[in-house]
Automatic annotation (TrEMBL):
Organism superkingdom: Bacteria
Main location: membrane
Record bears the keyword Nucleotide-binding: no
Keyword Ribonucleoprotein in record: no
Molecular function as annotated in GO: potassium ion transmembrane transporter activity; symporter activity
The protein's name: Probable potassium transport system protein Kup
Subcellular location: Cell membrane; Membrane
Gene transcribed to yield this protein: kup
Catalytically driven reaction(s): K(+)(in) + H(+)(in) = K(+)(out) + H(+)(out)
Pfam families with a match to the protein in the record: K_trans, K_trans_C
GO cellular component, one term: plasma membrane
Amino acid sequence: MEKRKSSFSLLGMLITLGIVYGDIGTSPLYVMNSIINDAGTMADAKPEYILGSVSLIFWTLMLITTIKYVLIAMKADNNEEGGIFALYALVRTKGRWLIIPALIGGSALLADGTLTPAVTVTSAIEGIKGQQFGNIVFSSKQSSVLIIVTVILLTIFIIQKSGTDRIGRSFGPIMFIWFSFIGIAGFLNLTNDLSVLKALSPVYAIEVLFSPVNKVGIFILGSVFLATTGAEALYADMGQVGKHNVYATWPYVYAMLMLNYFGQAAWVINNYQNKTYNGISGINPFYEMLPGDFKVFAIVIATMAAIIASQALITGSFTLVQEAIGLKILPRLKVKFPGKFESQLYIGTINWMLCAITIGIVWGFGSSEHMESAYGLAITLTMLMTTVLLHQFLIMKKHRHFANIFMVFFIALEGLFLLSSLIKFVHGGYVTVIITCAILAIMIIWYFGNKRRDAYLAESENVSLLDYLPQLEKLSKDSSIPTYATNLVYMIKLSEDYTIKRSVIYSILDQTPKRARVYWFITVNQTNAPYECNYTVDMMHTRNVVNVHLNLGFKKSQHVNIYIRQIINALIRKHIIDDQTPNYSMVPNRHVGSFKFIIQNQQFQDLGAQEQMNSLDRLLIGGRLLLQNITISPSLWFGLEFSDVVEEKVPLFLGSQTDEYLTEKELKNDVKS
């Protein structure tokens, strides 16, 4: 498995167009439509209102997408990786409290993303209503649109399992055609009314917020914000394409987007008094401004762009979840790599959850107009949380004064967008808020449940491995006990001071003694560097007790069976441990003996364990154990499904438990000494 090359080149720029800009690039399909709906009907979309709206779009893309994300956030790369979790991994040493904005931002980003495929594909397909292609006339019924959208979305989710690297190669050229098309279409309409270019002045943006022609006041920002919802994804996808390819392509993308928005604005200004549109709501100027002969092509290319945007969102969700798992923010889930690149992920659980939620949203809301009313609420939370983390990054880079100015400005700006988006809560935004809260609850339980469990264990359930080395060496040489395995491997955390869970030593010595030639204690450490992969070995002055620390980046595979065989072969070659060549084997020149892996699953024991905890800890630790039991087993997570694995259920606390109220009532027939 290799990391996708991200060097700067024309090919890299083309790939960037296909990977990075799907979400933000399809926003012209629905942003102006949403703004007109805020006005009421076409007749209410007066020139002053439209000029102010397009000015707000221009400056929103300038301030949030260009300045915050392209110019500032992309400097905060974690070994060329971006996104809120990569940023958190970069700054988390600056304060434990930084996990809070990371959890809120990550959960909101995942939740709001469920609307992206629904709203983009539906907006594209709605252009087909009532259109005639040759002898075929499409129905004007919305139900026909929903059926087509459902088939497209199902197809997108079904193909994820097989990998999308091959079809992904065509994404760049398609998106280049898309951006060129919308730019040219916008320019042709803009030439009919160049006065629209006055909207480049921020004065129009400020005036429309307080103008009487703007019936919704500040809440218009909720619709304007839709133009920049892909900015967070732009930052997150930076690692796949390289920041210099983003720097090179964003000016072109920004120019094409604004040409289209200006073109739509010019068309609306020239047609808001057109009797054809009197009293009609739900008019989409993106399609209406095109000549009839171009609508078929527009619908086809818009649908393809919407599919690419959906694909980028799904892949981004997989990446986000994988990062969260690596940082121990989410429970373990089965991660597959269907392509030859590490960026080509597939997480079945997430794929089908997204599929069910997205299709549910399509049918639940029924039209892109209703979806737009709910879209963008949660993503404002993500942007606010990214601002908080970027503030810490700038301080870390010794830019304290600039960091404070940055924080105040963008908290105020994005706080304004959040406030304006709150009206969406009652219009369907509550759906994404509910999903956000559900994801956030899982993250909190898993992350803090781990922390509280480890705190309890550190207090009473850890022992020093060094104290038991003599017994382990003696057991290894005791020929009176049958050999349990040549290599006995415990997937367990062994601290730098050699403290280990009491249950591990109990498993080896106090149950049926497990004799092995070599005892392995494997600690897997997640590191801040996304693709780090190295290890350290500590023999503890023995030849048969090995302490291995695997240091894996939060984007690396956890397939321990691959790593452990490489490590043992290296140690045998260096004569650090004894040769294990088996007497019988079909593999030539094999020097490694058999393996048995021991994985311990902790459970609450029946008596007393929960009484030792306060209510919050009981909820967190109990919830964490529940999630552990219903998600992927450790053996599958560590890639041991074809290895000899023993999963031992052990109590959360081992000590001998007593009940102070138990008393002896009677003792009969005691044998006197």
